[in-house]
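user: can you give me the structure for this one chain? tokens are fine.
assistant: on it. calling the predictor now.
[tool input]
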Amino acid sequence: MSFKSILVRSIAVVLAIGGSCWGLLLGAAFWAFGPLDDPLLAFAIFGPGYLATALYFLRLATFLNLWQRRSIWIVSLLVQGAWTATLIASAIGHSDGMQGGLRHPLVAFWLIGATIASALALFLEQPDSERRAITHANE
């Protein structure tokens, strides 16, 4: 396996585990405290993140073609990028810059890191012929 393949796989592992943790944490918090009374609204807000997390696991568990793998990273980049943009807009909209997610460094670290990692994985995915050659060489 090449360094690029290992790095992309590692990104998928970290995002799958991290996405699962955030999903459980947010799911439990919103179930317990109910800030979103409308389940459809809650699904619209958090559903894309759950989809991205499921796609990370799909990426890890199956052999997909290049287009499918890159599509996963595009979805991830859109989801993580949207949350990161919301975080930045929240910081810009407040004079102290510490409202929203920036009050919590872990949230900012995760969102910015996941966005960068998704973009990196998108560009590091190898064409199928290279992956097959690597796979057959390791058998």
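assistant: here you go. The helical segments are 3-33, 39-61, 66-92, 105-124, 128-138. Residues 9 and 60 are 7 Å apart (CA to CA).
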